[in-house]
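REQUEST FORM: STRUCTURE PREDICTION
Request ID: SP-0412
Submitted by: Lab K.M.
Chain count: 1
Length (residues): 170
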Amino acid sequence: MKAITIYQPWASLIACGAKKCITRPLKILYRGPIAIYAGLVAAHELNRQTSEAIARAFEDYAPIEYLPGYIAALPHGAIVATAELVECWSIVSHPGADTDRARRITVGGELNVPKHHPRFHDVIVPSKTEILFGDWRPGRYAWELANVQEITPIPARGRLGLWNWEGRAT
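STATUS: Completed
RESULT:
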């Protein structure tokens, strides 16, 4: 199974269903099953707005007063979820062919398909929380995930980028 290394707390935000897209500087052609690997390195310092959004996402897992310790204790060096990588969206300002609608959308994703392709008008519009949980600058890509399944962390040796994981989620 293909796997992707994600820093914490982003990997656990994917696992609990709060984060639906992985934003990357590279386009990907692969579609199919993917394992979410929580890397050994944690994310850099987070701003207050992002920290508050993370706390709200983890409310079901720990009372608010325990969240700083909870976030520090998230699994590292382990597969924490599996999912389906279903699409790769090109991040742009004011996406879509419908100019009236596009004016109201600050940032989003659109498919790189010819004008006559049946999905030419398809766009993805991230929520405010999704924007806080990723890097939605135009010129980057949003890898859309579906059917995310949180699993008991499975220790593994990760790699950078997209890599093959030989293990099996139970």
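NOTES: The first strand starts at residue 2 and ends at 8.
Reviewed by: T.R.
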